[in-house]
Design brief:
Layout lengths: L2 H10 L3 H10 L10 H28 L20 H8 L2 H4 L3 E5 L6 H14 L4 E5 H13 L3 H10 L2 E7 L6 H14 L4 E6 L6 H4 L3 H12 L2 E5 L5 H19 L1
Parallel strand pairs: 1-4, 1-5, 2-3, 3-4
Helix pairs in contact: 2-3, 3-6, 7-8, 9-11
Length: about 260
């Protein structure tokens, strides 16, 4: 059997990484002098790396992150109260495997969404399933799903996510039906899967934003218990960036 037939069989067996590695290495002078075991190891390593890369890409696509935030791009220098040691511990994702929650709270513009998505990407890199939602979007989808009979399918989809990111929490007070939907989502996940909440509303004001007092108690009990808190402060990073850019442009015009 010739090499082309072998490569075709490898493609049919869904081993594209090994095919790529063979074709790449066959162009390297002296590669044939390597022991068979070493060449096989190179091919298998390439296949493994390709599969891991594809798996992470699929997890990231399903997560539907709002921003393409990577852990290595996090700014620890900006004065916003972000503790490097605490956040790098969160990036290890042990809290997700333990079914704990996380809360990122701070004023507008301090990077809550970026940090939440960076944690989500860190989870994807470790093979954990993630879904990102803005709370208003989730509640709209829940209302539509109830109307067309897909509500339980939506709950099933959310239940599969090992990490559910709920961004823009507390932007507006919830209606009773919205509070019940949110409780339904969180009840399915309680003490089994992790939820990350990002909010500009201080935690002490969450209760009053959730409508019915009894439902609010139940929601907060399922979120705040075992939650890791990242409390941010300071001026908007977007505002500071704009001011820096304007200042640089002003000096540039003066020099001209």
């Amino acid at each position: 059997m010739g090499i082309q037939q072998t490569l075709e069989r490898m493609r049919k067996m869904r081993l594209p990484g090994m095919v790529q590695a063979y074709l790449r290495d066959s162009q390297i002078e002296g590669i044939a002098e390597l022991p068979f075991e070493e060449r096989l190891t190179l091919m298998v390593d390439h296949e493994w790396t390709l599969r891991e890369s594809n798996r992470i890409a699929r997890l990231r696509k399903r997560a539907r992150f709002r921003v393409d935030a990577m852990p290595e791009d996090i700014d620890y220098q900006h004065p916003r109260g972000l503790k490097r040691s605490q956040f790098q511990e969160l990036l290890r994702c042990d809290w997700i495997r333990q079914g704990h929650n996380a809360l990122i709270v701070g004023p507008t513009g301090v990077g809550k969404t970026f940090l939440a998505c960076a944690l989500g990407n860190a989870a994807c890199r470790q093979g954990l399933s993630v879904r990102y939602y803005r709370v208003p979007t989730l509640l709209r989808e829940a209302a539509v799903a109830q109307g067309d009979g897909q509500y339980f399918e939506l709950l099933k989809t959310l239940r599969k996510a090992e990490l559910l990111i709920l961004d823009d929490w507390g932007l507006a007070n919830l209606l009773p039906a919205e509070s019940r939907d949110l409780l339904e989502v969180l009840e399915d996940r309680s003490q089994r899967f992790s939820t990350l909440v990002a909010s500009q509303l201080p935690i002490e004001h969450w209760h009053q934003s959730l409508g019915d007092s009894t439902i609010a108690d139940a929601i907060l009990d399922r979120i705040i218990h075992n939650a890791h808190k990242v409390l941010l402060r300071g001026e908007s990073m977007r505002k500071i960036t704009r001011n820096s850019e304007n200042e640089a442009e002003f000096h540039s015009k003066k020099e001209d």
